[in-house]
Amino acid sequence: MVAALSRHLDALLACRACPNVVGLPVTGAVASARVMLVGQAPGPHEADSRRPFAYTAGKRLFTWFRDRLDVSEEQFRERVYIGAVIRCFPGRDPKAGGDRVPDAEEIARCGEHLDREIRLLKPELVIAVGTLASTQLLGISQLKDAVGRMHRAKRAGRSFDVVVLPHPSGRSTWLNKPENAALLDQSLQLIAAHPAWTSVM
Q: What is the pTM of this model?
């Protein structure tokens, strides 16, 4: 499996299939991980550092795990495979501001990388971060219907549990509502109690 994962990473990091993205592919590979995290896409700082969740959103994300589950960023990165719906920075959205949402072709192309990872790693738990990841893994596009629950999904011939977290972007106001903050707490507790999580943490 290690050799197959190495070949996969060579192919992923060499990928230049999407002409409108910026920079090079980013991933946080952990061999033999039983838990995966799937985000939306790298931001500009991640594209520069080649490290997922390396800036403001990452600080917020890892604060959730540190403060509520007593897991440090270093522990998380060492034990959880960090992927994304697409692995390159999509670029800025000149109309809406912020990062451009990946288009359907980019999602489909990069989805092949995610499928290969799922087949290789056989994860028992996938943490989906944000609406786009929830939509791709579960077909659920409303966070209120996704966060705070344990879901069962099937992809790439594998079945696994999925827990959804809201995106930790500072631009998001979703967590300003107390009922949504409570859903985040429920998701984190579901992760903490999952056998795949307890086996690695």
A: 0.96
